[in-house]
Amino acid sequence: MDAHSPSATSGPSSGPRVVLVTGGTKGIGRGIAEGFLAAGEQVVVCARQAPAELPAAGGRVAEFIGCDVKDIESIKALVAEVVQRHGRLDVLVNNAGGSPSAEAATASPRFHESILRLNLIAPLNLAQVANAQMQRQAEGGVIVFIGSISALRPSPGTAAYGAAKAGVLSLVASLAVEWAPKVRVVAVSPGLVRTEQSHLHYGDEAGIAAVGATIPAGRMAEPADVAAAVQWVASGAAAYMSGTNLLLHGGGERPAFLGAANVPGQAHAKEQQRG
Fold it and tell me: Cβ–Cβ contacts within 10 Å for residue 41, how many?
């Protein structure tokens, strides 16, 4: 099977693919949903509550199904409803997740368990149910986990979240082996992304701009940046990509020691960074 053949990477041989985006009503998830809609795909989004306005792009509007991704029966009902409506599920984007800031030393065990359940156990359960459906399809399917840079560097204030996302990357590597060749499993791990909730983490516009200036790209990612990456890894162009993680962080983070070092030539570099 070559990259141009109908396969787990390309979906049905004709017509739009059926794409399910969890947490697809706001933030990164909404951007991902709108990206697939603009590409002509059939998109279903889920969340616990319906939004005032559904994602829309390219003359298409996403469908909504209510779901609590932490509840296994709700997950089963979600996938069953998607299949009942459309006859298949081609792409699952496991996006739902997140965490408020909390010090690991004082956060309750119940809090830590909740964060792990939302960001690690829930996406595993949903992937398991989606895989069962995709394995029955001639073209298989693609499962994309939204990871985080927090899995790969210290995550003070969101330690449990970072640990959960590190677990997601391990899952991706293992599930890609178990579920091949019918189903590809990949991760896209964004760095800092500007959303409608950025002010909760970075403050006002000046704070958001200052944080963006620390990134080599000169800005935070936008949801559309993440959407473009997810569309690519879910496409036939990425047919041989499975079990791996695509980092999307604008060049990463400038090492703190460079800002503290007092070495000839560093002053010029600092000025360039600020400019």
Answer: 22
